[in-house]
């Protein structure tokens, strides 16, 4: 049983999918932390130029 789980999680498709979900979760958390502001709504780097 342990060997079957190990072989399942070491498959390339499973590893790729888990990495994809991990980075997608990080990206979504950053969006929700900093909000979906447009350029005129807040501190945008190019507003002062």
Description:
This is Teichoic acid D-Ala incorporation-associated protein DltX. InterPro entries: DltX. Pfam families: DltX (PF12459). It comes from Neobacillus cucumis. With 49 residues, this protein is mainly α. It has one domain. Helix content is 63%, strand content 0%. The protein is built from 2 helices and no strands. The longest helix has 23 residues.
Spell the H/E element sequence: HH
Mean pLDDT: 80
**Proportion of helical residues:** 55-70%
Oligomer: single chain
Q: What structural category arises from helix and sheet content? A: mainly alpha
Indicate the proportion of strand residues. Answer: under 5%
- Contiguous low-pLDDT stretches (5 residues minimum) are none
Total number of domains: 1
Total strands: 0
Gross morphology: rod-shaped
Return Rg in Å.
19 Å
Gap between N and C termini, in Å? 62 Å
Helix tally equals 2
Largest sheet: none
Q: Top keywords for this entry?
A:
transmembrane; single chain; DltX; rod-shaped; transmembrane helix; 63% helix; 2 helices; mainly alpha; Teichoic acid D-Ala incorporation-associated protein DltX; 49 residues; membrane
């Amino acid at each position: 049983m342990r060997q079957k789980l190990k072989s399942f999680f070491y498959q390339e498709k499973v590893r790729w999918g888990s990495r994809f979900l991990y980075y997608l979760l990080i990206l979504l958390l950053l969006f929700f932390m900093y909000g979906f502001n447009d350029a005129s709504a807040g501190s945008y780097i190019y507003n002062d130029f």
